[in-house]
Amino acid sequence: MVVKVYGGAYGSPKRVIACFIEKEIEYDVVHIDLFKGENTTPHYLNLQPFGALPVIQDGDYTLYESRAIIRYYAEKYKSQGTELLGRTVEERGLVEQWLEVEAHNFQPPLYDLVIHVLFDGKEGVIPDEKRIKEDEEKLARVLDVYEQRLSTSKYLAGDSFSLADLSHLPFGHYLVTSLGREYMIRDRKHVSRWWDDISSRPSWKKVLQLHPYVF
Amino acid sequence: MVVKVYGGAYGSPKRVIACFIEKEIEYDVVHIDLFKGENTTPHYLNLQPFGALPVIQDGDYTLYESRAIIRYYAEKYKSQGTELLGRTVEERGLVEQWLEVEAHNFQPPLYDLVIHVLFDGKEGVIPDEKRIKEDEEKLARVLDVYEQRLSTSKYLAGDSFSLADLSHLPFGHYLVTSLGREYMIRDRKHVSRWWDDISSRPSWKKVLQLHPYVF
C-alpha cells in the first residue's frame, strides 16, 4: 500500500516526505493548489477539516498535522530506515521537547516572515517593516538558544539526527533561499555547522529535487 | 524520586500536573512568579533557556515544553494509571493529531484572548476590540470542527480519554471562567457534553483545588 500525501509543493508536507524517505516508505504525492483554493473543496475538507496541509491517506487510515504524521511513521516503522525518535524513552523525551520548540519558537516568526516578505511582495502589498523587524528579532533570540545547545550537542536532541532536526528543514530552507537571510545561520558557528549537516542529507536533497517549492 | 514541576499556578504547567495525577506520579511544585520575573533568573534560564513555563526536574533529567513532558510520562509509565496515548500505533497517531490541533488551532486564539481581555483589562490598557473579535471568530471555527468530530466520537482521538483531551483543560478553563465565554462551549451540544466529561474528571478537580489559577 503506497501512502498518499497531499500538497508536496508546500513547506509542511515536505516534513512528511523527508520522513518517508528517511524511513524508506513508498509514497505518492497528490497535488493541491492553494492559490486555486483546492484545500477548501468538500473532498479536501472531508480529509482535513481545517483546510490545512498536509494530510495522508494510508489505506483507510487518514491523518493530518505534519508533526503528528512524522511521529506516527517514525514509530510504526521503528526498525526500518533511520531511527528518528531516539533509542530510549529519555531520548524520545528530548526529541519531543525540540519538536515542540521548533513548532512554537522557530516556525512562527519564520512563517510570519514568509507571509510578510514573500507574499506581501508578490501581492504588491507594502511590507510591514515593523513586524518584519520583530520577527527577525524573535528568530535571532531563538537561534541564540540553538547556538548554545549545539555548542555541546551534535544535534538538537542529542548525538543522533532525529525528527527534531528534520522538522526544521522545510522552513529553515526559506531562510537560506528566498528570504535572503542566510546570515542568520552563518553568523552562528554551531547553528551553521548543524544546518550544513542536516540540509545535506540525501533525504532532504531528494525532497528538493523531486518536490520543488512552489514559491 | 519525586518530580519537580515549575510554575503550577499558571496554565501550561497544569497540563503536566493533570497528567501526573492521571498517571499516579508523585510531584512537588516549585513556585515561579512571572510578575516578579522569576522565569528570567540565570537559574531558571539554565533549566529553560526560553524563560517559558513549565520545566520539570526528575533526578538529573530536565525537560521542558508541557506537551513534550506529558508525552514522556505517558510513555514512561504506560502501564500505570490511566492509559493516555492510545492502545495501538494508529490510536496514538490520532492522539498526536489532536494534540497538534490543540496546540496550533485551539490554544493560540484562546491565549490571545487571555492576553487581550484579562491582562489588558488588569493593566488599564484599552482592549483591542478588533483583535478580540478575530480571536473569537477563529476559536468559533475551531469549535465547529470539534462539534462535528465529537458528534461521532466520544473523545477527540477516539473512544477513550487521552492526552489530546487533557491538553485542552488548562486554557479551556479560562473560557468557562474569567473570559466569560462559556456560551462558546454551551452553544455546541457535543462540545458541551465533552467539556463536562473531561473537566469533571477527579484529576482536573484536584488540579484546580491544589493549584488555583493565579489569574
In short:
Chain A has 215 residues and is α+β, with helices and mostly antiparallel strands.
Properties at a glance:
homodimer, 215 residues, alpha+beta, Glutaredoxin, Glutathione S-transferase Yfyf (Class Pi), Chain A, domain 2, 2 domains, four-stranded mixed sheet, 4 strands
Description:
- The structure is a homodimer of 215-residue chains.
- Chain A is of the alpha+beta class and 215 residues long.
- Chain A has 2 domains: 3-81, Glutaredoxin; 89-201, Glutathione S-transferase Yfyf (Class Pi), Chain A, domain 2, CATH 1.20.1050.
- Chain A is built from 10 helices and 4 strands.
- Chain A has a 4-stranded mixed beta sheet with strand order 2-1-3-4, with helices on one face.
- In chain A, strand 1, helix 1 and strand 2 form a beta-alpha-beta unit.
- The longest helix of chain A is centred in the middle third of the chain and has 35 residues, at 89-123.
- Chain A is globular, with a radius of gyration of 17 Å.
- The mean pLDDT of chain A is 96.
- Chain A binds chain B through residues 49-50, 61, 63-65, 67-69, 71-72, 75-76, 89-90, 92-94, 96-97, 99-101, 103-105, 142, 145, 148-149, and chain B through 49-50, 61, 63-65, 67-69, 71-72, 75-76, 89-90, 92-94, 96-97, 99-101, 103-105, 142, 145, 148-149.
- Chains A, B: This is glutathione transferase.
- Chains A, B: Keywords: Transferase.
